[in-house]
Automatic annotation (TrEMBL):
Its cofactor is [4Fe-4S] cluster. It is an enzyme of class 1 (oxidoreductase). Keywords: 4Fe-4S, Iron, Iron-sulfur, Isoprene biosynthesis, Metal-binding, Oxidoreductase. This is 4-hydroxy-3-methylbut-2-en-1-yl diphosphate synthase (flavodoxin). Residues 271-356 form the IspG C-terminal domain. [4Fe-4S] cluster binds at C275, C278, C310, E317. Transmembrane segments: none annotated. The lineage of its organism: Bacteria, Bacillati, Actinomycetota, Actinomycetes, Kitasatosporales. One of its GO terms (molecular function) is 4-hydroxy-3-methylbut-2-en-1-yl diphosphate synthase activity (ferredoxin). Binds 1 [4Fe-4S] cluster. GO terms for biological process: isopentenyl diphosphate biosynthetic process, methylerythritol 4-phosphate pathway; terpenoid biosynthetic process. The gene is ispG. It catalyses: (2E)-4-hydroxy-3-methylbut-2-enyl diphosphate + oxidized [flavodoxin] + H2O + 2 H(+) = 2-C-methyl-D-erythritol 2,4-cyclic diphosphate + reduced [flavodoxin]. It comes from the Bacteria. NCBIfam families: ispG_gcpE, PRK00366.1. It comes from Streptomyces tsukubensis.
Amino acid sequence: PPVTATPQQLAPRRRTRQILVGSVPVGGDARVTVQTMTTTPTADVDATLQQIAEVTAAGCDIIRVAVPSQDDADVLPRIVERSPIPVIADIHFQPRYVFQAIDAGCAAVRVNPGNIKRFDDKIAEISAAATAAGVPIRIGVNAGSLDPRLLAKYGKATPEALVESALWECSLFEEHGFQSLKIAVKHHDPLTVIDAYRQLAQRCDYPLHLGVTEAGTAMQGSIKSAVAFGILLSEGIGDTIRVSLSTSPVEQVKAGCHILSSLGLRPRKLEIVSCPGCGRLQVDIHRLATQVEAAFDGFPHPLRVAVMGCVVNGPGEAREADIGVSSGNGKGQIFVQGRTVRTVPESRIVEALLEEALKLTQATGAE
Ligand code: SF4
């Protein structure tokens, strides 16, 4: 069954004001959402929509597209119209694209105050346009593009500098009565991220978008993000997350979904439980686990599939799962809900697991 965190396991969710990113609520009592960014040139509409479809299938709730040029701003209406999930326009250098994104029907706009020229002068106009369209704005402060005034004051992108930058920009919007805001303060160091978000959580009630920026390659970045998000979410801090990895957006979304399901904040779809292997190993467990994971990719039912490498602990572990295999001597003993159902040659293990998974989900009427 899907695992859900109990109040005893995680601190109560911090109370934040809720905003609507298109049809997706963020903050308040809304579930924690996963988002990512496309990597295609935004102006390449077909490629961008294809990537949006792929991340949506992987579990993405909200997509962000970069708008670095006029060509990108011009195609926003076509992307918004055909995207299955809300589209956020990410705007760095040109305030006029903010207005174009709002006119295009984008669900939200992300601005980086450190990068938008004469941004402060435009806030009244942006507030008015965003209010009229019901579009929230994300203040996205990034260590790499911190306001030079704050860099001079703090010497580097400290948690205090990131927080001051974000709250300063929020105050400028607040002066115009605009509070449909969401905040991110990103840094590549997870400890700085944790400190900064804890401070923000103390000082405002805006929903928070968690991110460790430039986190690195798939392994390093996933671990850094999981550590930072895990600690913050366990303290009730965080309303939406983005895992930034030097890999495809689909992998980023999968990592985000795994982090949430590990914390019980999102139902588990499918879980592969595989042993690490040891001197008792009687099969190439790394290859087998990878093959099983690939074969079950996209399997829609919340099964736990055990892949065990020998007959010592294998049968016991495999019995704990919905289905499983305990391998050894060129064979695989297949278990379904605690019962051995058959033994197959090693070359047929993956196929047999899939067959049993389908039978099981059909028999139990899983949806
Ligand atoms: Fe070692 Fe067997 Fe346990 Fe795998 S299941 S770690 S091979 S004892």
